[in-house]
Specification:
The chain is an alpha+beta fold. Helices cover 28% and strands 22% of the residues. Strand 18 and strand 19 form a beta hairpin.
Length: 625
């Protein structure tokens, strides 16, 4: 497979979306007429071209304004083109294609949002409504000639193995089972493939790999296992060392498989130590163009299986029950389609690759924690596994990221910059929490703070040009420029809910609701700056506060979760008696993160997903044989 053309592609199952002729057709990430970013666009307005009125309009998408150009004859919409958008391709393309098509088909804006791309869907409909207004019409003026939902209930091929979930674990499991000569159906409840991985930076780890050996790095699975199980300031929770050992042994071969069989582009092929708990060897590798490119390489392999009649990819299809026969072995799945149609399909084995619960506020095991995970991390797979009789490991406190700004509720779009020189971190009582020179300590600091609440405090002296006081969380996508960052800070201060500005420490504490000890803390900190010594935490990179003072209220936000279905080293799901449920396998966050990696170790998120998806596919393939 080395040398495979890696066309930026997604699997689409609607011929009207991307000119596809059948299920599984591959289309370019940028659909015709959907220009990324600001490659084309115009000011909103309307003009007359022949018999048609051409109008433009805009609406707010997830990553900025979406602009459309619409043509009308009378009150009939004859065409809609997306001329400007910034949305994440793998997530948004289904909405960017389907919504305009359905509006034209139905002559109505009363069309459903696309599952997994709701914000893009609403932004696109708002842009269309704005274009109507610019043409002198409203949505009530449209003829409403149809009610097509755009959702197709598609029958999968007959297959031995079903994979539930189209993120990295599911994509690896499907591609590997196909390589093993099995027929596979992949069910995904949203309208797109790729879960958290498709918006990740693409870092993945494994020991004793082809790339390591090419660099002259001497590494082994045993070294990796020793690292994963060692004690540290943020110790790994390794309740099942046999699974951790299996992960350590297989992560390298799986990385080689991605490298040579899936032909994933690892850029300069140089390993590194990552941003979190540094490994003992530079075994963390980055996928060129991020996790989405990793997903694309696997989707291409699955596309080959679809063409050969060995695979189906069924989108907007939620697994609502795992079926069993009289002996208790898996016999199939109950699938509920997006239009509420319910069907049952027979399979000999099921691989659960449904991801975690980090976008489900009700499942969070602690208070005041947001998310930076995409909406696909709903925790649905936990419910599915539990109903099937799996031994479910309870969620435990998992050190999340620190400094999330709760200005928009549960979803953490923004983070206070924890690397702003000279800033300090204080709890609700006004006391400093850790050595601010080491942002990696922030996880533990926020976790120990009352209510998980921490305030990032700084002054005008720290707001130097080119440094951002606010940054964006990566897994919710996007780029923030320095001037936007300062503007956002000013906006949040003006709103007065999560950020405040004052001329004195006492005024700042009162405005932010911090205990009066803040004044004493800032006075002591000023003395430390003068003396050049921090007796509290040993900080060395201190800067004295000058001018107006700022405070930003922050909470932790989570990307990965713990808990999930208990599995053995073969990825077989175990029941309450720790006996395998015949035919049921699982991997990735569906089995929890702390079983197979040290907390905060770079590359183990994608590594866990890919490795356990591979193991589950091999075990399921052997089982059905």
């Amino acid at each position: 497979m080395v040398g495979r053309e890696k066309e930026a592609a997604i699997v689409s199952r609607r011929s009207f979306l991307a000119g596809a002729a059948a299920l599984g057709a591959v289309s370019a990430l940028g659909f015709a007429g959907c220009a990324p970013a600001s490659e084309k666009g115009s000011d909103a307005g309307a003009s007359v071209e022949g018999d048609a009125v051409v109008a433009t309009g805009s609406g707010a998408g997830r990553m900025g304004d979406i602009m459309v150009k619409m043509s009308l004859v009378g009150s009939t919409i004859t065409g809609i083109e997306v001329i400007k958008q910034h949305e994440t391709p793998m997530i948004a393309n289904s909405a960017l294609s389907r919504i305009p098509e359905l509006v034209i088909r139905n002559q109505s804006l009363d069309v459903d949002a696309v599952a997994g791309a709701t914000i893009t869907s609403f932004g696109l409909k708002a842009a269309i409504e704005d274009a109507l207004a610019n043409a002198g019409l409203s949505k009530s003026d449209l003829a409403k000639t149809g009610s097509d939902s755009g959702i197709l209930v598609e029958e999968p091929i007959e297959a031995d193995i079903a994979v539930v979930g189209g993120g990295l674990t599911g994509l690896v499991a499907t591609a590997r089972a196909l390589q093993n000569g099995k027929k596979v159906v992949l069910f995904e409840e949203t309208a797109h493939l790729g879960g958290s991985s498709c918006v990740s930076d693409g870092w993945i780890t494994g020991a004793d790999t082809i790339m390591e050996r090419a660099e002259g790095v001497e590494d082994s699975a045993e070294q990796f296992y020793a690292f994963l199980t060692q004690g540290s300031d943020d110790p790994a929770i390794v309740p099942y060392p046999e699974n951790t050992r299996k992960y350590a042994e297989m992560a390298g071969p799986v990385l080689d498989w991605l490298d040579t069989y899936a032909n994933v582009d690892f850029g300069d092929r140089a390993g590194g130590y990552g941003l979190y708990t540094p490994p003992d060897q530079p075994r963390i590798y980055g996928v060129n163009n991020g996790g989405g490119a990793l997903d694309m390489a696997l989707i291409q392999l699955i596309q080959d299986g679809i063409r050969d009649g060995n695979a189906s990819v069924v989108l907007e299809a939620r697994a609502t029950s795992i079926l069993k026969d009289e002996s208790g072995a898996v016999s199939g799945l109950e699938i509920t389609y997006a239009d509420s149609t319910v069907r049952e399909y027979a399979f000999k084995a099921v691989v659960l690759a449904t991801g975690g619960y980090s976008h489900n506020e009700e499942m969070m095991p602690y208070e005041n924690c947001g998310t930076c995970s995409p909406s696909t991390a709903s925790g649905h797979g936990f419910e599915l596994a539990e109903a099937a009789g799996a031994n479910m490991l309870p969620p435990e406190i998992y050190a999340p990221y620190a400094g999330g700004i709760p200005n928009a509720g549960f979803e953490m779009r923004y983070q206070a910059n924890l690397k702003l020189p000279g800033e300090i971190w204080v709890n609700q009582e006004g006391a400093r929490m850790a050595n601010e020179d080491y942002p990696l300590l922030a996880k533990a600091a926020w976790g120990k703070a009352s209510g998980n609440i921490g305030f990032v405090v700084f002054s005008e002296a720290q707001l130097v040009e080119g440094l951002r006081p606010i940054v964006m969380t990566s897994y919710l996508e996007g780029e923030l420029t320095p001037w936007q960052s300062r503007d956002l800070l000013d906006e949040l201060v003006a709103e007065g809910d999560v950020a405040w500005k004052a001329d004195s420490a006492s005024e700042l504490a009162k405005a932010a609701g911090i205990d009066g000890a803040l004044a004493e803390t800032l006075e002591a900190y000023a003395g430390y700056c003068d003396a050049g010594e921090d007796p509290d935490f040993g900080r060395t990179k201190m800067q004295k506060f000058e001018g107006a003072l700022y405070a930003i209220k922050t909470i932790p936000y989570q990307l990965q979760c713990t808990g999930g279905a208990r599995v053995d080293p073969s990825a077989a799901v175990l029941d309450e008696k720790d006996e395998p449920i015949a035919g049921l396998f699982a991997g990735g966050e569906a089995i929890g993160m702390r079983q197979s990696s040290a907390g905060g170790q770079g590359g183990c998120g994608l590594g866990n997903a890919a490795t356990w998806g591979y193991i589950a596919a091999d075990s399921a393939s052997e089982y059905v044989s």
